[in-house]
Amino acid sequence: TQLLEQSPQFLSIQEGENLTVYCNSSSVFSSLQWYRQEPGEGPVLLVTVVTGGEVKKLKRLTFQFGDARKDSSLHITAAQPGDTGLYLCAGGAGNNRKLIWGLGTSLAVNP
Amino acid sequence: DAGVIQSPRHEVTEMGQEVTLRCKPISGHDYLFWYRQTMMRGLELLIYFNNNVPIDDSGMPEDRFSAKMPNASFSTLKIQPSEPRDSAVYFCASSWMTGVLGYTFGSGTRLTVV
Questions:
Q1: Which residues of chain A have a CB within 8 Å of the CB of B101?
Q2: Sign of CA pseudo-dihedral B38, B19, B11, B92
Q3: CB pair distance less than 8 Å for A97 and B50
Q4: Which chain B residue has its CA at the smallest distance from A91's CA?
Q5: Contact between residue A109 and residue A81 where contact means Cβ atoms under 8 Å apart
Q6: Helices (H) and strands (E) in chain A, counts
Q7: Which of A86, A61, A98, A75 is nearest to B103 (CA)?
């Protein structure tokens, strides 16, 4: 059974701090996606990474896919209250449309 | 584009009643997914459709759950009879077949069965 473990489960920081959250698996994925979910809303896709070692940047967010395509990280620089939410990673394998989801990291950025 | 539209946003019902959740996917998307989200289990895939045809319903908890997609612009998820353990947030999502995987989710239906 493929599993994605996210850490930490909860994170509370002050505005302006940097942080990194992790998404780890013992399985290889063909792609990995990161979503952010705000209270009362559905997850919103932030990025998809497909190549081992790939790094993508989205403003203050930096996403990295592990060389072996088993893990990923999300780094946020100078966090802002608007970054508050649940960050979910999801892995895709082959042509199967079924994504494997982590349980998420709940981030609170305090003003 | 209005995005994926789900209704109702909130549903409170008594145990044993029938519940129908509705979803309108993004026009042109050929995949539609129904998910359930709880604190304990996270996002669970219930069923997904491709071009209106159910492809995988292995995530449907039991026979009390059924889903239909009569056309490309509408899908329903029905629970009959409902039970308190069905209380959760139910999401519909849609995507294109081509390109890297990426879902667009609706805002969800928060179901409470009392």
A1: 31, 33, 48, 92, 97, 99
A2: positive
A3: yes
A4: B101
A5: yes
A6: 0, 11
A7: A98
C-alpha A67/C-alpha A52 separation (Å) is: 4
Alpha-carbon distances of B3 from A29, A53, B94, rounded to whole Å: 28, 32, 9
Which of these, B89, B4, B56, lies nearest to A45 by C-alpha position?
B4
Residue contact A99–B101, C-beta within 8 A: yes
Q: Which of B93, B106, B100, B109 shows the shortest CA–CA distance to B48?
A: B93
Predicted confidence (pLDDT) per residue in B50-81, tens digit: 999 999 999 998 899 999 999 999 999 999 99
| Strands annotated E in A41-84 | 44-49, 55-58, 61-65, 71-76
Q: What would the pLDDT profile of A80-90 be if each residue is shown by its tens digit?
A: 999 999 999 99
Distance in angstroms (rounded) separating the CA atoms of residues B71 and A96 = 23
The answer to whether the CB atoms of A104 and B42 lie below 8 A apart is yes
> What is the distance between the alpha carbons of residues B26 and B58, in angstroms, rounded to a whole number?
24
- Tally C-beta pairs within 8 A across A and B: 48
* Residues in chain B where the model's pLDDT stays below 50: 99
Amino acid, res. B45: L
Contact B45 A99 (CB under 8 A): yes
Overall residue count recorded for chain B in this entry: 114
In a mutational test of the B interface, the residue from A38, A101, A106 whose CB has the highest number of chain B CBs within 10 Å is A101
Looking at residue A79, its amino acid is: A
